[in-house]
Amino acid sequence: MLYPTTTPTRTVLDLSGLWKFMLETEGALIDATVPLPTTDVMAVPASFNDQSAQQKVREHVGYVWYETTFNVADFLRNQRLVLRFGSATHEAWVYLNGQEITHHKGGFTPFEVAINDHLVAGENRLTVKLSNMLDFSSLPVAHYDETHDADGKLVRHLDENFDFFNYAGLQRPVKIYTTPQSYVADVTVVPEVDLAQHQATIDTRVATQGDVDRVRVTLLDATGQAVATGTGKHTQLTLPQVHLWQPLHAYLYTARVEALKNDQVVDSYDEPFGVRKIEVTNGQFLFNGEPFYFKGFGKHEDSAIHGRGLNLPANVLDLNLMKKMGANSFRTSHYPYSDEMMRLCDREGIVVIDEVPAVGLFATFGFDLSGKQDNTWQVMRTAPAHRQAIREMIDRDKNHACVVMWSIANEAANFTDGAYEYFKPLFDLARELDPQNRPCTYTSIMMTTAKTDKCISLVDVIALNRYYGWYVDTGDLAKAETATRDELALYQQLYPDKPIMYTEYGTDTIAGVHSNYGEPFSEEYQEDYYRMTSKVFDEFDNFVGEQLWNFADFQTKFGIQRVQGNKKGIFTRDREPKMVVRYLSDRWNAIPNLG
Ligand code: GCB
Questions:
Q1: Which residue in 367, 492, 527, 566 is a FRET match for 508, CA 20 to 30 A apart?
Q2: What element of type H or E holds 202?
Q3: Whole-structure pTM over 0.95, yes or no?
Q4: Active site residue 504
């Protein structure tokens, strides 16, 4: 799916701003054929939860409604007009002038619908009904049930199987974009690099709709100079003396795709791309032929007031803080991030592990290290949603240079019977869909060990989420060090050809809490913990990266282990550094990205 941009043949209308908003309460069903009966407003894009100052809105489980009105200039009405939601969390029914025009489930990927046939003259009314409900058939996964209060009123309960606040709403931009009636529908760019010759072949496939008799592809360098051109829906163009996209040294080319009719350009679209080669071999993660070391984070799309809503200044600051620290990467834990963040990472050379919202694939949520089997794969009904999420993520992100690996799940019950049967078709699907054949992984929870994980054969890189010194061996860094070392040694011994990385490790740390005794929750403990883990990591040859948990403190559901959220950030929620940032900056700035 193409990101909407303005080109010589297209334009974009942004519907961001203040929309009407109301909760749907039982017994007061809302009729989309008349204007929403409210004067309350919500800013879009943003989560609704933290904008209302009302507990019943923040914690609402069920349906909410949004509405806006817009006009389309007369001179655009002969164009194809497409309404596109960057996301709608988690399920949306979209009405234009009272008529349902589309429905989408899955809260973290875009969807779109052509609207020409539904437009009226003058003002148009766009209404969206949203559900923030989740269950054992959705991603992410939650326990859902219904009870009735003393008055017989329905009460919905959602108990998240995951550790982040269930923010919802129109969290990403809503746009209308135009295309001509005959248009470029999709572009797939696959760079094949010959490192020895410093050249690349750029394989471009273009899908068109309508009356198009030829497609022209022109490759532009970063200064906008044309460096290669060819015609055909499938072209292979050579770039001699290619500039590689390297970690923290991005170089972006543009594939200018033009749909032609009788030698006239009917549609034109610019797709940025980078040229780089990713290989996993002999226990190494190779980036343009050199061993790459991941330094960085698990993150969240999470900031004050915006909730999980697009916050461009926060995105820019986050990447700048990463670069300042010598970090080079993050994982989109635990869902695909906005188009805007992915495009920013392409520009900034930040390497991304792209994760589907497959979090909470556990019959019971909680920490039980006994390793006993549970019935997760008998009760989970997530496979269709999981397939759809993989499809939509790869469809959206396939051309991004920043994306170097797909994460097919975060912390599933991979040690229980049925896990392999569940995951095997999903890994096959991801591999079949990705035109760039990127490596695939999932992040493994501590209950899954080197000996009990039933799915390791599916992954290219072993990605471990580990909390020795926090949930296990709490406060005892000597024991934690031994456990960390012993486990890595076992993985390396059993899987000598697979690279291993940590995709989560950390300690809750309340900014400003200090301790002469290095106690848990203090900034001293957090620093001691990271010094300990670093020491162990450096002992292992197959160890290809450290992505700590978490970049910043973030909001979660209530819990006795959560003080206004998860405090494992090395930055506070408003991006003030905790003490450990200096230590990690020194460490990471001294570790080369490549080599
Ligand atoms: C995990 C989860 C992450 C949590 C983290 C924690 O293993 O993947 O979502 O936030 O642990 O802090 O408990």
A1: 492
A2: strand 199-209
A3: yes
A4: yes
